[in-house]
Amino acid sequence: MILIPTITAAATAGNPRIAPGAGTARAADLLAAAHPLAASTDLARAQTGFSLAFHICFAVFGVGLPWLLLYTEGRWIRTGDEVWYALTRTWARAFAVLFAIGAVSGTVLSFEFGLLWPAFMARYGGALGLPFTLEGFAFFFEAVWLGLYLYGWRRLPARWHWATLFPIAISGTLSTLFIVAANAWMNVPRGVREVDGQVVSAEPLAPFTTPSALPQALHMLVAALMCTGGAVAGVYAVGMLRGRRDLYHRRGLRVGLVTVLAGAPLQLVIGDWAARVVERQQPLKLAAMEGLYRTGNHAPLTLGGFYDARSGQLRYGVKVPDLLSVITGWSPGHTVQGLSAAPAGDRPNAFVVHLAFDSMVGLGSALILFSALVAVVVLRRQRAGRRPYLPTGRWWLLAAVATGPASLLAVLAGWEVTEGGRQPWIVYGRMRVSEAVTTNSGIGWAFGGTLLLYLGLATALGLILRRMATGGPTYDADAPRPPTRGPVVTTTAGNRSAAGGAPVDEPGAGGRVGRGGR
Amino acid sequence: MNAADALLLVMVGGLTAYALLAGADFGAGVWDLVATGPDAPGQRRLIAASLGPVWEANHVWLIFVIVAMFSGFPTAFGVVGGTLELPLALALVGIVLRGSAYVYRAYGGGAAGPDHWWGRVFAVASTVTPFMLGTAGAAMASGQGRPGDPFAPLRSPFGLVAGALAVAGTAFLAAVYLCRDAAAGPATAHLIDGLRRRALASAVVAGALAAALLPLLWLDAPTVADRFMTRGMPFVVVSALGGVGALVLIGRRRYGPARLAAGLAVAGVVWGWAAAQYPDLVVGQVTVRAAAAPPANINALLLAILVGMALLIPALVLLFRVFAQPEPPDDQ
Ligand code: HDD
Ligand code: HEM
Ligand code: HEM
Asked: Who among A127, A140, A457 is closest to B297 (CB)?
């Protein structure tokens, strides 16, 4: 986790109720190095960032996997095809483990907010209460139905078992919307009235109506689906690269790849919307994203490059004149605010934010390119009637392996943009990070402990998931029967013999004969 | 009663659910830790089978209480976070290790180290967590947590005994609940006698700890002790009757009703504490009135909780009914 040096800590440390923006940057600069609070702020931020990043790497699967399972188990129920069943069973086991880690790391977060940012929670906990409470219910719902799903294979009729995925998927999705709404409010805080640093009234619905809520939430939702799809595609692409080109692997690859590739172009549209909201509501964040120092019209857009805070220049970037003004205001004469508009102490760290933003957009663009190439191949094969439609050559598979890590990296980079670009505020324009931080000593211990604990758990988890991912499908001998009695097209044996890459891809109409057969 | 009091009542309800449901899960972990003899593998399988489908849902009651606290009483959450950081952080470590060890054992198939290691981690973490939560609760009653002195809650004899009582209480609950699960099928019936002995032993320990706690309560938390003798009394009576009743019922092999009685025994302690605590959230540091969020927010929370519970409770009932009988342990 990259830390943004905390410059304003000391200025406001003595008086936690100091009016927002009152910290004089220069004095703060001088004091920061000496003041112990600065160190504790950095540690608290590192810990928050680390725990959130850890959590999100698992939470995305909690959002995405139920939707994929809904598809694969639905196919199994309709066709009675064992391959769909084997995919479903494997993913459900992975889901169980990922969910549990998501749940415990999420619990850590809800405690950490109080342990690390007590003043923030004390002042704004009420304002954020509604989204957090709804979030709590969404988790609750998800956990209850997940218990039924994971342990109900033999106790619920197949169709009912499948149906329990709906509440799981919906509550996972809603939990994203709720939690991101809380974050959106921290970025664009609306609807609070404060007197002397005391919240006297806060509109309960404000987090949902704040302008950044909808784009941010949708962006995160699509991101979660992309990460899930990419990871799934990657697992089966690796299997195919190792020569296991059976139906099981081809289908797993297809479901995952279609998900991640369909999301990529959408993400550009939503991300563009998010950026426009940022331009209006958090101009300094936009300036940091673009590494723009000088306020003015004819603002250039720089691709790549490293921001140098001393000179206010981007080094080694490709500069396109006027483009930023054109994108944001549809005219080269449009004025864009630069970092210079704020005193040095009130600027986000443009080096990190610009780098993170370019990484996200770069990864997103690469995914869009890949998705366009795949689309071209699929269309051509479809026209020629050549199955399988998805290209499965070595390079295509290698690219498919990369989609998962690329999406996850884009998520982490995107969050660095959002959270790093908000600095030095914890609640934009209202409360500084340094006012919010705990005064406890011993955060260093807590952080070290968290790091060790999480790294240990992640290693163990990695080993378990690798075991689940490698190898072919496992067909339980005593699998519960699907409600279909029709001809089962793919058998275990047929599946194995298809290892050479036989072109049969779908059970086609034959698999559906027995639909609703009971 | 105003909106803040209503929210507080809801939180006590959530805490009770956590104590009774997740508490029993923790207690099962305690028994997993001390399982010995030729029956030990059988005991562990029974424990795993009865936890599987429900522990995740049971655990969320804690999140519900935490979220309600920081949304409804944000100042108090700030105070708790700034004074009880050590017991809470250790409880967290326990929660994290327990949850992950549980799924690693259930799904890992040995890929990340032998299953019985994870079993041990699960069991130790299940013991540490209720202890730390009990200590934290005691510090809210005594007001002994101080900013800048993270060890204060762990140095207080009152806090330590309260933590031990929490562990004994969860172990008692778990033993009683497990009796019923073991009685559900012939494959596990031979475990019942051991579980009955455990229920009896933990009830005796819990009773002794409760008796030891009373003088300490007077010494370390006089404010709460005063209120405890008046307002708390009815709940103490409920608790004592529940405890004795549970033992009698277990003696007569009526495990279903024994569950209910054991639940009352634990709930009575929670309620007695809550009643004696009011209107302080952390004694000497923050009260309900001072901590409450603006009324509009609390009303919105109450509404959200009402709607949420209306959706949730049927789902919970379904979950518990579908899994009322534990699966035969060999068939996961
Ligand atoms: C698969 C992941 C992924 C991909 C491919 C992209 N993003 Fe993104 N982006 C995220 C994942 C993400 C995220 C992690 O989900 C963030 C962090 C906070 C949020 O709401 O979404 C985010 C934030 C975020 C923000 C900041 C919003 C704020 O602070 O309010 C902007 C401006 C963009 N994105 C813009 C883009 C653009 C123009 C993309 C073009 C391809 C793009 N993103 C691709
Ligand atoms: C509701 C959602 C979220 C809330 C309320 C929230 C809140 C916070 C808080 C309180 C901090 C510390 C103060 C600060 O440095 O600004 C922080 C920092 C951070 N958060 Fe978030 N966060 C949320 C979502 C996320 C997510 C999902 C991620 C993804 C990984 C994330 C990544 C980070 C990072 C990287 C930092 C450190 C920022 C820095 O280095 O300056 N946040 N967030
Ligand atoms: C500040 C940020 C966050 C906090 C405080 C938080 C809190 C929590 C908590 C307490 C849980 C455990 C629930 C349970 O036991 O079932 C959890 C799980 C979960 N969280 Fe987060 N969360 C945060 C950020 C996010 C974000 C940004 C997402 C969006 C993708 C997310 C998605 C989930 C999901 C889907 C789960 C269910 C567990 C799983 O499926 O793995 N969380 N979170």
From this structure: A127
